[in-house]
Amino acid sequence: MAYYDNANKFKPSVDTLKKWLKTRKAKLGIKPGLFETVDSSTDQLWSIIALLIEMTALGLTLYGAWTKYLITGKVAIMILAGILVFLFIVFDYIGILLHIHDEPDKVITRNTIKITSDSTRLKILYGNLEAISWRRFTSYILLFLSALLKIIALLQFVGSSALVIIILTLFYLVVIYIHSQHTGYFLSYLSFNRALKLEYKEWLSSNTNGLTNQFQITQPDQIVFTTNAPLFPIENKLFQNGRQKIYFTQKTSNSDSSVSFEYTLTTEGCLWDEDITILISFFNPQLTMPIVENCIRLQFTQLGIIT
Questions:
Q1: Which terminus has fewer CB within 10 Å in the chain: N or C?
Q2: At 119, which helix (H) or strand (E)?
Q3: Which DSSP letter does residue 131 get?
């Protein structure tokens, strides 16, 4: 899929590319999982379901408090309901943001593992990948507290039977799951998409008026790498697929009698994960790993990351 038009002329800013890292990635296969978004419609659907449950809790809390206020005339009931609703929203929002905050680091670590061979560093990277940060731990606490407050509020203002307690508990366990596994990704997708559209609009306006801007591609990004076997017949010199090119530059005979082949990989604009998947499909599966690894390195340079 094309994430935006004119990908060979327009390139999003580094800040926007970093926002892209917070969207959901495919974690299987050999492709990176950097510049892609998967299952955004699923995340949207679950987020809407969670929102409906949340709005129901909010509405029932305020309605129940209003009903009790009409009976008792105590303003404190409405104040308490207002405070609880405010805490619902704040705890949920902060919890969701904290939960998704570390996702870019996880994505970068996951891809750094793919280009790392040193066993000591790999052990550290895997440890970082599996670790639960204080932000993520705090996010679970806040989401749990939000769910607990909603249950307490509904029991206080609506009803308190055993069946109601069981149903509400199940509902809000589901909501905690949705917020931690879907809502953060969906909100990140909206944030990335909004930033992308604003930059594309600015680029399009400048381009239409013949003006230069920071999003205009002036030259391709590139990386030089070597392999132990030729990727394609060296007399061809060049392989091209769409916005990506691989140039053969030289063949070197090493002191240990081995031979290495040097190539330059270039891309016009952002190197999408989909581009990599298509690119490696043209090569012998035994030769794809050096291509994938250097595609990841090239993506890292586009993110401003030095490996």
A1: N
A2: helix 119-130
A3: P
Cβ proximity of 219 and 226 under 8 Å: no
CB contact at 8 A, 27 and 33: yes
- Detail the DSSP E strand segments found in 168-258: 221-227, 238-241, 244-253
Torsion of CA 142, 147, 149, 151, to 10 degrees: -170
Q: Give residue 39's pLDDT band: very low, low, confident or very high (50, 70, 90).
A: very high
Residue the block writes with tokens 């009698």 = 257
Residue 58: domain span: 14-206
As a whole number, mean pLDDT of residues 17-37 equals: 87
Task: Find where tokens 């009790």 sit.
Answer: 68
Q: Which of 165, 183, 206 is the last residue of a domain?
A: 206
Amino acid in position 289: M
- Rounded CA gap, 283 and 291, in Å? 9
In a domain, 94, yes or no: yes
